[in-house]
Structures are given as C-alpha cells and as structure tokens.
Design a protein that fits this description.
By secondary structure, the protein is mostly helical. It contains nine helices and no strands. It has two domains: about 100 residues, Orthogonal Bundle (Rna Polymerase Sigma Factor, Chain: A); about 60 residues, Winged helix-like DNA-binding domain superfamily/Winged helix DNA-binding domain (Arc Repressor Mutant, subunit A, Orthogonal Bundle). Helix 2 packs antiparallel against helix 3, helix 3 crosses helix 4 and helix 7 packs antiparallel against helix 8. The chain is globular. The protein starts with a helix and ends with a helix. InterPro entries: RNA_pol_sigma-70-like, RNA_pol_sigma-70_dom, RNA_pol_sigma70_r2, RNA_pol_sigma70_r4, RNA_pol_sigma_r2, RNA_pol_sigma_r3/r4-like, WH-like_DNA-bd_sf. Belongs to the sigma-70 factor family. ECF subfamily. This is Sigma-70 family RNA polymerase sigma factor. It holds the Pfam family Sigma70_r4.
C-alpha cells in the first residue's frame, strides 16, 4: 500500500490483485455467491483506489480495507432491502491470512496487539478472531466469564486509545 501510494504502479496492481482474492472470499460467504460478489469486489477495489490517499500508514491496512468492504456490503443490502445481522467488529474472516499471504501483512494485527498484556492479547484473539464465547475464552485463560468480559472490554478500550493516539500524533507531526 505504501509503495502504491508513492506511485509504484506494479506494487499497486499487486496490492489490488491480493486484495481482490480476500474480498471475493469475504463477500461470497455473506452473499451465497452470485454476480453480486464480483460487483461488490469491483466497487470495493474502486473505493480503495479512490480513497488510497486517506490511508494512514500508522494504522493496519487490513482494518482500513475491511471497513470499506463492510460499508460496501451494507450499502448493497440497503439497495436490495436485505435484512441481515452482520457484526461490524467481526474481522476474523477478513484477517484470516491465506497461506500465500506476504509476511508483512500478517504483522499488522500482531503489531497492534503487542501493545496489550499477554492475557488481553489472548482474549482478543480467542473471542474476536476465533469466535469463542467469553466463557470459553475465560476458561482457556483460567479466569471467570465475568473477569474475561472485563478484561476484553479493557483490551478493546486500550486498542481504541492506542489507535486514537496514533492518529493524534500523526495530525500533530
């Protein structure tokens, strides 16, 4: 993404090709296949292209791209009057790395989670990425469901503050 923003056309094409594979999987799981999947992939790639200069390199690229994809999906459902429940904070499908993914893209999530204590990192991964319940994640961590809920809440709050601090630092810098 950074090379693409800097004008490297080959890097930009490579990014869009890799992203299109992830987007097809993302939309196909939510739309049961069909022509709409490819339309949404193209709409999302176009939006990424148009908004590429708004990407903040201090933040994970995958989260930025996932947000664009989610809003394109929601817009599609609105246009078609489809009612579905889709949690906005569900990054698991989008962040699941295919085996051919470049190692530098895998580091986004690890880099952000590294700012948390080990127990909180594990809870975020278990609940938000692997889909475990709070009771299951708490049992794995050796704490009660209530303690897991509090710890997860604190972890998400800390991640939000970290993201906001990074944005504030960038604006000041």
């Amino acid at each position: 993404m950074l090379r693409g923003q800097a004008g490297d056309a080959a890097a930009w094409r490579e990014l869009l090709a890799l992203l299109s594979v992830r987007l097809r999987m993302f939309f196909a799981r939510r739309l049961d296949g069909g022509a709409d999947v490819e339309d949404l992939v193209q709409e999302t790639l176009l939006a990424v292209h148009r908004r590429r200069m708004t990407y903040d390199p201090a933040q994970p690229f995958t989260a930025w791209a996932h947000a664009i994809a989610k809003y394109k999906l929601i817009d599609h459902w609105r246009r078609n009057r489809t009612r579905k429940h889709e949690p906005l904070d569900d990054l698991a499908d989008f962040l699941a790395a295919p085996e051919t993914e470049a190692p530098e893209t895998r580091g986004d999530l690890d880099r952000v989670l590294a700012h948390l204590p080990d127990r909180q990192q594990k809870l975020v991964r278990d609940v938000k990425l692997q889909g475990l319940s709070l009771a299951e994640a708490g049992a794995r961590a050796g704490i009660s469901e209530g303690a897991a809920k509090v710890a997860l809440h604190r972890a998400l709050k800390a991640l939000t503050e970290f993201a906001l601090k990074g944005r504030d630092d960038k604006e000041r810098g």
